[in-house]
Amino acid sequence: MKNKGANVPFHHQYLLAQLVRGVVLSGGSEKYQNYMLYNFSGLKGQTKISRNGLHFFSSKVTLVFSAFDKEFMDYFLRQLFTMPQLEIGNLILVPESVEKENYPELEDESKFICISPLVLISPTFNDSRGKRFISPEIDEFSDILYESTLERMARLEEVFPSEKIATFSKFQLVPDKIYLDKIRENQKKFARIYPVYDQDVKYEVRGYTFPFTLFAEKEVQKFVFTCGLGSFTHKGFGMLDIANADLNSRTERYEF
């Protein structure tokens, strides 16, 4: 980071989405022009909130990025590291290094945290349903995520043929009740409205951030961990991490 103390809007996923899209298109690859099986977090670093947004005071910031296809990841990183600097909001950043996280052991029951907001519904133009609040404690919450996850997996017919998709019947998201109760007691929020831009049209969607346990087949767990959970995952929503992960032994050198 070249200008310590600079800021981005508190909700800055749309700026990162524009950056990622620009990097992808800059390589000129027709193969990846409409590729959407990637996911990313918000910017991570030492921050302070003010009325102007989120100020970064660390010398380095981190973006967690994930993709289903290793070839796409190589392509994206090669384009990113040809750029002398990047501007995100008022931040001026210089690409410096990339590390690979060690892939966790996922079972049929996994405890996750959201490191970017989880969006349930993709709205249509002039439609406010994307802002509707749905309690994560009712079955409708899980049902919507189940349908959207299988729909995304079904697009990868060579990896998940229809007969394989049909076997993925178990899917239940159970929120951390202690966390939700504590949030309510402190009169804080775990669900907020976020801006999303798609085809130059601005939408507003409700995003949720809370820890939960997911009961699903191992292949489904791996897919949502890699590609995100919910809607607008390619725009930086629904990125997950393992709860209580060991942060000291998680990265290794990234090999092209």
Automatic annotation (TrEMBL):
GO terms for biological process: defense response to virus. It holds the Pfam family Cas_Cas6_C. Residues 104-242 form the CRISPR associated protein Cas6 C-terminal domain. The keyword Glycoprotein does not apply. Belongs to the CRISPR-associated protein Cas6/Cse3/CasE family. Gene3D superfamilies: 3.30.70.1890, 3.30.70.1900. Keywords: Antiviral defense, Hydrolase, RNA-binding. The keyword Hydrolase applies. One of its GO terms (molecular function) is RNA binding. Its EC number is 3.1.-.-. This is CRISPR-associated endoribonuclease Cas6.
